[in-house]
Fold this sequence. Notes:
Blueprint: H1 2-12, H2 14-19, H3 21-24, E1 25-28, E2 36-40, E3 43-47, E4 52-56, E5 61-65, E6 76-82, E7 87-92, E8 97-101, E9 107-110, E10 125-131, E11 134-139, E12 143-147, E13 152-157, E14 168-174, E15 177-182, E16 185-190, E17 203-206, E18 210-216, E19 219-224, E20 228-232, E21 237-242, E22 249-252, E23 257-260, E24 264-268, E25 274-279, E26 290-296, E27 299-304, E28 309-313, E29 321-322, E30 335-337, E31 343-346, E32 364-368, E33 371-375, E34 390-395, E35 402-407, E36 411-418, E37 421-428, E38 449-455, E39 461-466, E40 472-475, E41 481-484, E42 498-503, E43 509-513, E44 518-521, E45 529-532, E46 546-551, E47 557-561, E48 564-568, E49 586-589, E50 592-595, E51 602-607, E52 613-617, E53 622-625, E54 632-636, E55 648-653, E56 659-664, E57 667-672, E58 686-688, E59 700-703, E60 710-714, E61 720-725, E62 730-733, E63 746-753, E64 760-767
Antiparallel strand pairs: 1-57, 2-3, 3-4, 4-5, 6-7, 7-8, 8-9, 10-11, 11-12, 12-13, 14-15, 15-16, 16-17, 18-19, 19-20, 20-21, 22-23, 23-24, 24-25, 26-27, 27-28, 28-29, 30-31, 31-32, 32-33, 34-35, 35-36, 36-37, 38-39, 39-40, 40-41, 42-43, 43-44, 44-45, 46-47, 47-48, 49-50, 51-52, 52-53, 53-54, ...
Amino acid sequence: MKRYFYVWFLAVFPCLLIGQSNQLWKGYFSYNEIKDLSQTPSAIYAAAENALFSKNLNTNTLKTTTTIDGLSGQTITALYHSQALNRTMVGYDNGLIIVINEADGSMINVVDIINKQLPSNIKRVNHFMEYNGIVYVSCDFGIVQYNLQLLQFGDTYFIGDNGAEIIVSQTAVYNGNIYAATSVGLRRAAVNNPNLIDYSQWTNIAAGIWVATETFGNELVSVNNGATVFRYNGVGFSTLVQLPLPAVDMRAGVDYLVISTADRVYVYNASFILAAQVLSDLIPDMNAVFTCATTIGDTVFIGTFENGVVTAPIASPTAFDFISPSGPTRNNLFSINKQSDNLWAVYGDYTLDYDPTPVRSYGISRYNASGWLNIPYDELHPAGANTFDLVRVTVNPSNQNEIYISSFYNGLLKLVNDSAGVTFDALYNETNSGLESIFATDPPTENIRIEQSAFDRNGNLWVSNGIVKNAIKVLNTSGTWQSYNVEGIVANYFNTRYGRMLVDKNSTKWLCTTKDGVIAFNESSSPQFKKITTGTDTGNLPTFDVRSIAIDNRNQLWIGTTFGLRVLSSVDRFNAEGQMTANMIVISENGVGAELLAEQFITDIVVDGANNKWIGTADSGVFLLSPDGQETIYQFNINNSPLPSNGINDIDIDGVSGEVFIATAKGMVSFKGTSTEPKDDLSNVFVYPNPVRPEFNGTVKISGLTDKAHVKIADITGSLVYETITEGGTIEWDTTAFGKYKVASGVYMIFISTENGDETKVKKVMIVR
């Protein structure tokens, strides 16, 4: 019953979970892909892919807003800040609008556009324009009115011919008329006309596709898709400028008109004279692509596609500054590694069929107590070399400064991480190692498919080399390479793709494959190879395609496939005679047996310090399972948690702090639970929060524990209210007396003893109701 309660509670009361965000969740978002800008005379507001930030220009303080605070993980397409009401409107590609009260941070989700009976692909929000207290929302189907003070929707205008749905990119009010830049012309109507829902009230004043329109001074300025900027004085059009590239954004302030293309920003003064021109190729150390720009005072603020917000004085448009918050390079973190003091992230990728093309030239990121360090792609290899599609990071457990990164196209990259920074050390390919290209005709530095590497207990580094006969390679501690042929175990080496790999306590290597289930290999055993595949007599997997594996604290092998979950009772089964067989986990649902996670596409499995299982899925978020899988402790998704996406790329855990990092295609968040590794003694037991104040709604955590320690909590009279035996280094107490009722205010004694009783510790916690 307990399992169902957690899932039901999170589904029905997601706001409570998000309300405790500072206690449980933390966001690690990229602020580099700028979608839109807004401003006041003293602040700039910027919308990244699915997060916001603002900078107060008087105090230089930065503020971020993410899914942790209540934003959606969907893609942002429009941003507007109303200075008069101190409210910010955020528009999304699915039609969602979120209104933020900047005074207290509260948010309202406006779903009226989402709920409209329209095709889902035409609900995108393109632009906000405020006039006389009404915000006109430009969408891919027309225009919607929104009263920002009353927080109410008004009329919807379908202004195409015969009331058809047309794309409206932007609106502006000029000389008593509202103008709309649309996919079928520049249209206008009297802004005070009470019957604007009648399409016949809208007149087409210029044919063609129009991408922007703004009022500047005494004229209307509009841009068509032919990159021509026109001035309109109410009578006729004249050309202001013919742009060399299409306009991506245009906006007007009191003093300046700003027009942006992908590589230039044009700033015109009130006399329509070009006051400044900012060129992207003059910005040092980046290949900037512009997305939008605005001005505050005499400074231009430029949003870029991958480099955040760049600023420059209008009088000196080559003196650049950068104001984006620190974060990873991109939101789409393909994989992460937190098996050291640093968290490493890479951004390579491949398709569901393990096809790396088109290859991606992204760098890597490192996060630690000092913040984020993003290393550009060009700094990861010598001049003239390439390391495309970096997909996995392995840290040498004997030397945290040795970092190995798998390139799914160019081999194995070795970096050194020390006080001098992160520097290149070696690139292993066909010219200097046992690694192989797919075809003999391939260049010796290309088409070398390395997905995963893993160290064994002797310090040897094992790698999987895809689509070649000798697919298992090892870099020995002596510096020599050795290869092992897989033709006797896989059905067709050329069709098999390799995924994650790990090495167990017996030095057996376990590999995920797409066509042959799980392959197990030990060079010191006979036979050297075994595999777990489909069929009751050949392994009992639900499909050949395995994407994730993990060994838990009881030496069980958990296997995540594209069609469900299986568990091998022990990795020692490799050394037993006969076929290894994995089993499903059967749970009880309403008194009927059911398969746990049946038909789920499982992308990752991670075991925490308490032997709980964190299960990532392709489209259902994250499941936290009890050690035996019989209890679903949590199920996190976009509806009940700050997860920005239900598609989970990777999960890893900081064994010291218990922070669980969850990487998705829409950004990374972390959950602070009880996932710490056990300690060797009780010298650093810590209780938090302490005291527990009336407004606190979470659990008391006791960390720094040894494995299988006995913990008892009693009131001041000695009456026992809680008792448990630990698995891992941290436990939680919900401040109830064995789950029956909340305990009263007072001091509670915590008695702790190790498994064999040779060490004890006593702590106190105060409860204030």
